[in-house]
Write a structure and sequence with these properties.
With 487 residues, this protein is α/β, with parallel strands linked by helices. The chain has helices at 27-39, 100-115, 181-185, 205-216, 247-263, 267-276, 299-305, 372-385, 389-395, 407-423, 426-434, 441-445, 452-483, and strands at residues 13-23, 44-47, 121-124, 127-131, 134-137, 143-154, 171-172, 177-179, 197-201, 224-227, 232-236, 280-281, 291-297, 310-312, 319-321, 324-327, 330-333, 338-342, 357-358, 361-363. It has 13 helices and 20 strands. Strands 1, 2, 3, 4, 5, 6, 19 and 20 form an eight-stranded mixed β-sheet that branches. A five-stranded parallel β-sheet has the order 8-18-9-10-14. Bound molecules: flavin-adenine dinucleotide.
Amino acid sequence: MMIPLLQNAGIGMAQHETDYLVIGAGAAGLAFADTLLQETDAHITIVDRHGRPGGHWNDAYPFVALHQPSAFYGVNSLPLGTLRKDTAGPNAGHYELASGAEVSGYFHNVMYQQLLPTGRVSYHAMSDYLGDGKFVSMLSGEQTQVNVRKKVVDASYFGTTVPSTHTPKFSVAPGVQLVTPTGLTQLWQRKGLRPTRFCILGAGKTAMDVGVWLLGCGARADAISWVMPRDSWLVNRATTQPGEEFFSHSIGGQALAMKALAEATSVDDLFLRLEASRQMLRIDPNQTPRMFHYATISIGEVELLRQIKNVIRRGHVRSINANAMTFDDGEQTMHAETLYIDCTASAVEPKPMIPIFQDGKITLQLVRAPLVSFSVAMIAYVEAHYADDAQKNQLCGNVPFPKDISGWIETTAANMRNQMQWSQDKTLRKWMVESRLDGFGKLVASVAPTDTEKMKILGELRSQSGAAMANAPKLLAAWRATNQRTA
Ligand SMILES: Cc1cc2nc3c(=O)[nH]c(=O)nc-3n(C[C@H](O)[C@H](O)[C@H](O)COP(=O)(O)OP(=O)(O)OC[C@H]3O[C@@H](n4cnc5c(N)ncnc54)[C@H](O)[C@@H]3O)c2cc1C
């Protein structure tokens, strides 16, 4: 896969030349490379520790699925999925969700059918980037020094962790049965007795997937316990659907969200309004969620998860022994045969934001949350078509990933600021409308002026947005004063 070595330095280090050196062949690195190849003549070198393209999707548990519809995930040049709707299961009525295996297969095709055939990409799997343009093959130990003509692109910033590559932060006594979600699917291989009780550890989307999977595979709801350190607000999947038939949910939903933001009197009141208008869901209506990480779920899945009644809300588990779990406030007795399922890996951790464009370096981050693929493709487009880093950073304002429920407001406001800039720039506007990764751009652009119903929704969205942006800082200030958060 390497372009010919220019020379061997004679000290055992290969030399290699490229325009852009991309660290990471996950969704971020590939979507960036794909758009940059489409927009420039650049040569790109991609280095990744994994043995296949696709990053964390290669380590995912078998029943993982993409959160968002396939229609606008992946890279710009290659569609993902078939645009069919599920007719069975808890996602029925919504567009298909790509399975983990499908996403991995897709990224394989991206590399081998889209990127490498251009003749302008060199891909180095099983290679560890050491910094300063140097990487080492994890199989041969050979080091390569890359002479980067333009920029080093850090596509590892998101640092996604998944259960199979994560180390739990709690201790486990010998004899306790602890598995990852992948281990759960391998239970059929066990010779002896299979567990009759299950305990899900963690409150994120993986834990929700495990609950849905256990129930779907026949586990009794009363055999499942669930350690839920905190409750989350969840995005109603109906609001993320790409098709025109969902216009009132997606674009109408955005208008309702803006109205809620414009009229809310506090952050909690905002979420109650978002729930009332079906933008947000929560598993237990008696709990006030304190977390929001854009986990996306269908009403069908929420209804299934509500069957699990033994929810343990005592914070983070610190240790597990034969008959109990320990929390900061004491012990919780457990059945000795319990199989614990570790879902405590945090897929997405908020990280400090840094300028995306710096001298000789691009650090891929969100410019539209939570959409990784769109964000990095936009960054590549801006890199290709704009002159200096100051202007590029201006166009690619960082969008923070939420740290808590108030983060929804900060993220929404930052998304809107970027959207406003992009819509005033003719070149960007045109690219966005043509990009498959821009979820709703085409849908909005295709509304006929004679379609009074849809035009009314668009008008409502526009008129509520101003009031929403005016109210946002007030809500955040009040939240920070109460929660003693720093800005
Ligand atoms: C279950 C799940 C579902 C998700 N669903 C969605 C969704 O629907 N929509 C969405 O936008 N996001 C979703 N996400 C978020 C997800 O993080 C992104 O979609 C995306 O896959 C992240 O890609 P990435 O390239 O940033 O990270 P990764 O997939 O982690 O790729 C980074 C790569 O960098 C490599 N690397 C890191 N450091 C080095 C080094 N020093 N040398 C060499 N290689 C290195 C790693 O080996 C890895 O392959 C989901 C996440 C999870 C866990």
